[in-house]
């Protein structure tokens, strides 16, 4: 057996001139994506720094001009080369910074809306920390938003169950509402019946009765409502009954009204212009001393 000194002398030694091991980018999804993208560009594990733009394209990123050079400087260690792990570390940091920037921007926007809500509340409440629910419309109008009675009636059930709106509760609700993070109550055409199961059941039964076939009935082609056989038009949408008989044409032998033009000529108050000449009104009796068909009459 070898002596301890011999064993020590035979043990492998690390090269003192070898570079230290490269830090790992970790095992995150972003790191795995960057390594895979790097291998698609070059599987050797190292690429010249001028291929940095190809690496960016492979992970779906794009920079141009001065910004491209600024990003290249972050990954270039001065050797003129980019290793696989160096690019993975760069990409992980790029994604983390982007997420942090988005979160910061969102929080800044939320804080701005909180300030707007506090200012509007203080104006309406005259410095108090609560207002009656009747002033909710004034709060919304002070913020320059559209007030929808039906929508905000449902909001007040949750926001002011005791009949008063608290400042802090209103501010947080408004921020969620205006940024789209709260419950969606945007449909101003909705009514309180939307939350009433009994009303929904009644509406369904009514619709079923309207669309159920009845003997001799006809179905509207527009809204599917069933109508009685003799109905000239749909009761729901007033679409004409396609099977309804056409209306009878007006008779040509109707008696001419006074002052009208009939088949016999002009008629003035019962008289007419016919073969015998003009006639105004009913024929008057011949006066005494007139000439009749049998001669003079006195």
Describe what this molecule looks like in 3D.
The structure is a single chain. By secondary structure, the chain is mainly alpha-helical. 42% of the residues lie in helices and 8% in strands. It contains nine helices and ten strands. It has helices spanning 4-10, 29-41, 52-58, 65-75, 84-125, 136-142, 149-159, 167-178, 197-211; strands at residues 46-48, 81-83, 130-132, 164-166, 218-219, 226-227, 261-262, 265-266, 291-292, 295-296. The chain has a two-stranded antiparallel ribbon. Helix 2 crosses helix 5, helix 5 (84-125) packs across helix 6 and helix 5 (84-125) crosses helix 8. The model is unreliable at 184-194, 254-258 and 270-275 (pLDDT under 50).
Brief descriptors of the model:
single chain, 298 residues, mainly alpha, two-stranded antiparallel ribbon
Secondary structural class: mainly alpha
Instruction: Tell me the number of helical segments per DSSP (H or I, 4 or more residues long).
Output: 9
Through-space gap between termini:
181 Å
* Overall average residue pLDDT: 74
Approximately what portion of the residues adopt beta-strand conformation?
Answer: 5-15%
Secondary structure: number of strands: 10
Shape: elongated
User: Could you give the order of strands across the largest sheet?
Assistant: 1-2
Gyration radius (Cα, Å) is 47 Å
Q: What is the N-to-C order of secondary-structure elements (H for helix, E for strand)?
A: HHEHHEHEHHEHHEEEEEE
Largest beta-sheet characterization: 2 strands, antiparallel
Low confidence ranges: 184-194, 254-258, 270-275
Helical content band: 40-55%
């Amino acid at each position: 057996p070898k002596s301890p000194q011999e064993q020590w002398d035979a043990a492998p030694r690390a090269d003192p001139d070898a570079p230290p091991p490269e830090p790992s980018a970790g095992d995150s999804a972003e790191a795995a994506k960057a390594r895979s993208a790097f291998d698609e560009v070059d599987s050797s594990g190292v690429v010249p720094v001028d291929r940095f733009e190809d690496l960016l394209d492979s992970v779906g990123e794009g920079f141009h001009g001065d910004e491209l050079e600024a990003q290249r400087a972050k990954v270039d260690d001065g050797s003129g080369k980019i290793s696989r792990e160096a690019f993975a570390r760069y990409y992980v940091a790029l994604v983390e910074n982007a997420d942090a920037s988005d979160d910061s921007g969102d929080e800044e926007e939320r804080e701005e809306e909180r300030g707007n809500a506090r200012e509007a509340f203080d104006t309406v409440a005259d410095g108090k920390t609560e207002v009656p629910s009747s002033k909710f419309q004034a709060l919304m109008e002070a913020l320059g938003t559209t007030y929808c009675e039906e929508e905000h009636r449902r909001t007040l059930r949750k926001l002011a169950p005791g009949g008063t709106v608290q400042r802090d509760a209103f501010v947080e609700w408004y921020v969620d509402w205006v940024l789209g993070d709260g419950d969606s109550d945007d449909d101003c055409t909705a009514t309180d019946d939307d939350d009433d199961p009994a009303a929904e059941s009644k509406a369904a039964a009514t619709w079923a009765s309207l669309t159920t076939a009845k003997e001799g009935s006809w179905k509207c082609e527009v809204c599917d409502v069933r109508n009685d056989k003799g109905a000239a038009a749909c009761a729901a949408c007033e679409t004409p009954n396609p099977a309804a008989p056409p209306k009878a044409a007006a008779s040509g032998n109707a008696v001419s009204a006074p002052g009208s033009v009939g088949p016999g000529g002009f008629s003035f108050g019962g008289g007419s212009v016919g073969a015998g000449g003009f006639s105004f009104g009913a024929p008057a009796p011949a006066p005494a001393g007139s000439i009749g068909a049998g001669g003079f009459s006195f």
